[in-house]
Amino acid sequence: xxxxxxxxxxxxxxxxxxxxxxxxxxxxxxxxxxxxxxxxxxxxxxxxxxxxxxxxxxxxxxxxxxxxxxxxxxxxxxxxxxxxxxxxxxxxxxxxxxxxxxxxxxxxx
Length: 109
Description:
By secondary structure, the chain is of the alpha+beta class. The protein has helices at about 1-5, 10-20, 25-45, 80-95, and strands at about 50-55, 60, 70-75, 95-100.
């Protein structure tokens, strides 16, 4: 997120060229939302844990949250960077890997 913030102008230009939207929309709305999304889910990476559950028996019960493994995602031509972020950031925060198929119409971002 810090790198994206440092290169806000470049990313905004690429996103605008890629999908044909106004530069102001990319720079003032989309890329800042993308950055916020990465920061939000980065905060969850160390908070996804299991719980010990109370029981009325002498047994020990707990939940264990584990990554699914590989997550597949497909992004459309509109809002390519934002759609990628919505799919990749929660998957990575939960410990998964991601394989993404981007639209051939918007391959820059």
